[in-house]
Write a structure and sequence with these properties.
Elements lengths: L6 H27 L1 H10 L2 E3 L2 E3 L4 H17 L6 H12 L7 H10 L10 H7 L7 H10 L3 E5 L2 E5 L6 H11 L8 E4 L12 H14 L17 H4 L15 H5 L8 H4 L29 H5 L12 H4 L14 E2 L9 E2 L3 H4 L3 H4 L12 E9 L14 H9 L1 H10 L11 H4 L2 H5 L2 H8 E7 L26 H4 L2 E7 L8 H5 L4 E5 L17 E2 L7 H9 L8 H18 L2 H18 L19
Parallel strand pairs: 6-7, 8-9, 8-10, 10-11, 11-12
Antiparallel strand pairs: 1-2, 3-4, 3-5
Length: 613
């Protein structure tokens, strides 16, 4: 018989040997003819060198290299004279600059500003839809709003409730530094933290078509080169304007109308999430990431492209205040969601000298003397967290994920806390997971805690009955003292984080997650000036392990140092108070044109064409 007891092992060993030869030969052929696959495998598998593990080429290395080139390409477009600035404007905007452009350029040069036309893209993104509203109607809408900065005869004033004036006064002060160069204006201000205007995408799309038709280069002979310097208080129709604010419904349902019809948020819409059950969180690499890490910051921040955020961010779960309008009218504010239609100013807390938002003068120790740790302190803000929904809030999720004891307990018991999950090993090949417990490693590299649990209702502040089992209240650490740590996490609160500019100007490295837009977004390069992080935080451990190392894997301390110091140097060139003045001056020149009845022909004509205005 062929199948004798003695023959089976010999036949099996022969078959196994044949299979092994075929497999090895096949893999060799695949790697030989597919270098990309071979490189990918090598990136993910560490190798030993002496008694240390040295990581192979990491995807973050690629992202940092790309960011370096992106900044080089951006700076190659810098303009150094008014004619070049005029040409860059014409090329990018499709119309002539507004009256006063030459004075603005001289002002910017006097302030030693870096002038790159792309730095002002936000202005046109915000203002272009208003070409579909008449100038007289814009003036009426603006003058009827109860919180506004005013310009009259070259001086800035403010109208608003004395109780809610701090931010208004700061914006008045900022506008006042450039008001002498501007015609009379009313500048409505959003006094709330939350964004308030979301016009349906279809309406904005129609308005943008009107703006495109308005993009024409008026001839020098037909151009009107000065604003109509009328007195607004006499010139404006003062009839009340119905802003049509509503507070009904979850904010996601109000906001999603601002997304394109084919966006994931509208094509994969899930109405009325049940926030009382724990969220489903990703453990694999985020969609559209580069091997797990953020490569498109605009896409990562966008709720329209990440509909899961409706159940993972306090803005959509339950904001502190909901007051939303679908009518387009000029409202200015410090931040907004990508689908919102406010007009962005530099935030008031970036203009203040309050050390709560900046850390004050000086940024502590040199890089080599800083703690090799991530630090985060803050309140459990982000909206109104309740017993039924707190597991959906972003700050709660981040603090839990950074708590080594919480994570270690989850690893030992295989029972996760109700508001986060641990990434799979296959997603990020974490050395801390391969050789031990992520929780033990986190105790060494992260220090994140709430200073107030801010629950609703709030019977025993700073504690909270339903989150006390999961969180302790930590000691507050002033920003100036946080600069003694190398890594600074920056997470959204009720809206954007007012600490971001301070972090960028420090000698530490900001690690940023947000869904909010700000005035300066087009002048900051992710992975060059800061480290971007996904809003689920699934990449957080991978980011920290890359920079800080784990077990026998070395970290990339030098890369972290270069980004942090490069970001500080860049912030001192493009995020100064002088840069805010330059931005606001340019923004209000454009806003003034839209509010002028001659706006179709209002233009600055360059000296090259015979004018000197």
């Amino acid at each position: 018989m062929l199948t004798s007891l003695g023959g089976l092992p010999r036949i099996n060993r022969f078959v196994q040997l044949c299979i092994a030869v075929v497999v090895i030969t096949s893999l060799s052929w695949i790697f030989l003819h597919n270098p990309a696959l071979s490189a990918t495998i090598q990136q993910q598998v560490p190798y030993y060198k002496g008694n240390k593990i040295s990581p192979r080429h990491h995807p973050i290395d690629d992202l940092v290299e790309r960011a370096e080139q992106e900044l080089v390409d951006l700076l190659a477009k810098e303009t150094h004279d008014v004619q070049s600035a005029n040409d860059a404007y014409l090329s990018r905007r499709g119309r002539r600059p507004p009256p006063g452009f030459g004075d603005w350029f001289r002002f910017a040069q006097d302030k030693k500003a870096v002038i790159v036309e792309e730095f002002f893209d936000r202005i046109y993104h915000d203002l272009n839809p208003f070409w579909a509203i008449t100038a007289s109607e814009m003036r009426r809408q603006a003058s009827a709003w109860r919180f506004r900065v005013t310009i009259r005869a070259g001086k800035a004033g403010a109208v608003g409730d004395e109780v809610e004036r701090p931010w208004l006064d700061l914006w008045q002060d900022l506008v006042g530094t450039v008001a002498e160069n501007l015609p009379d204006l009313d500048i409505p201000i959003n006094e709330m933290d939350e964004s308030r205007v979301v016009v349906p995408w279809e309406t904005i799309n129609e308005n943008m078509a009107v703006a495109s038709r308005a993009q024409r280069v008026v001839s020098a002979s037909d151009a009107v080169t000065t604003y109509a310097r009328t007195t607004l208080d006499r010139d404006t129709d003062t009839a009340p304007f119905d802003y049509a604010f509503s507070s009904e419904g979850p904010y996601w349902e109000l906001a999603v109308v601002g997304c394109p019809p084919n966006s994931p948020a509208r094509s994969d819409y899930t109405p009325r999430y049940d926030y009382s059950i724990p969220p489903v969180l990703p453990t694999l690499q985020p969609r559209n990431s580069y091997q797990g890490f953020v490569q498109n910051w605009t896409l990562t921040k966008s709720p329209c492209d990440n509909p899961s955020l409706q159940a993972l961010h306090g803005t959509f779960v339950e904001p502190l205040t909901t007051s939303n309008s679908k009518k387009l009218f000029p409202m200015f504010g410090g931040s907004k969601l990508p689908m919102n239609n406010e007009i962005l100013l530099p935030p008031a807390m970036y203009w203040t000298t309050d050390p709560f938002y900046s850390g004050g003068q000086g940024h502590g120790k040199a890089w080599t003397q800083k703690y090799d740790k991530l630090i985060w302190r803050g309140a459990a803000s982000g909206g109104r967290n309740r017993k039924e929904n707190w597991t959906r809030f972003q700050r709660h999720r981040f603090v839990a994920m950074m708590n080594g004891t919480t994570v270690r307990d989850a690893e030992l018991s295989n029972t996760l806390p109700p508001n986060f999950d641990i990434p799979s090993y296959g997603a990020y090949h974490l050395e801390s997971m391969r050789t031990g417990f992520v929780g033990d490693w986190l105790k060494k590299v992260a220090d994140a805690a709430f200073v107030h649990l801010l629950c609703f209702p709030d019977p025993e502040p700073p504690f909270c009955p339903y989150t006390n089992p999961w969180y302790s209240v930590g000691e507050s650490i002033p920003m100036k003292e946080q600069y003694a740590y190398k890594y600074l996490a920056d997470i959204d609160g009720n809206s954007f984080s007012g600490r971001y500019r301070g972090f960028l100007g420090s000698t530490s490295l900001p690690i940023k997650a947000t869904i909010y837009d700000e005035w300066h977004d087009s002048r900051l390069v992710p992975w060059k000036h800061f480290v971007p992080m996904d809003n689920t935080f699934v990449d957080a451990y991978g980011i920290l392990e890359y920079f800080l190392g784990a077990g026998k894997v070395d970290g990339h301390d030098g890369v972290a140092r270069n980004i942090s110091l490069g970001g500080k140097e860049w912030a001192e060139k493009v995020l100064r108070k002088e840069d805010m003045q330059v931005y606001v001056y340019r923004l209000l020149l454009e806003y003034a044109r839209l509010c002028d009845d001659n706006r179709e022909v209002l233009a600055w004509i360059s000296p090259h064409e015979g004018h000197t205005t």
